[in-house]
Amino acid sequence: MSRVVVEKMLRDNRKSTFGLQITSMVDMFTIMLVFLLQSQSTSSTNITTDQKLKLPASTSTTEPIEALRVVVTEEAIFVESEKILDLQNKNINPKDLDPKDQNLASSLHQALLVHANRSRDIASKNETVQFDGHVIIQADEGLHYKLLRQVMYTCSAAGYADIKLATVLTEAK
Question: Domain 57-169: which topology?
């Protein structure tokens, strides 16, 4: 072939080149992006535990909520990282219980009332915030139910009626 013919073929070939149509590909990536964003967990609540605290196992997949945190270890009870009372042999000391109501832990009740009143005060000044009475209890799995019942009863008496127990997720069998 002559050089002129080859050049003509190259010129004609350039004219017939096509532009890449990426509309379909953009649509596909948009759908994938929306799917991934929908399936991604967006919980901003982070529950950290003490190394000594062993939470009970559960298969529940309920997302944690933002709430007041009460931690019950074998040695003490904490509200938002503040030690409220010491335990004796995994039980509340009888002197820490209300004499009129043996299920009410007095110092825990007072600490919870302080937090509840603070939340109600903030809610009265800010319309976007409201006191909802949510509390998350992190309790060691080796504790007796009697202690947990006393803690839950005390939380309820202080206005925290929506009680959630923190657990560790395990696979269903």
Answer: Nucleotidyltransferase; domain 5 (3.30.420)
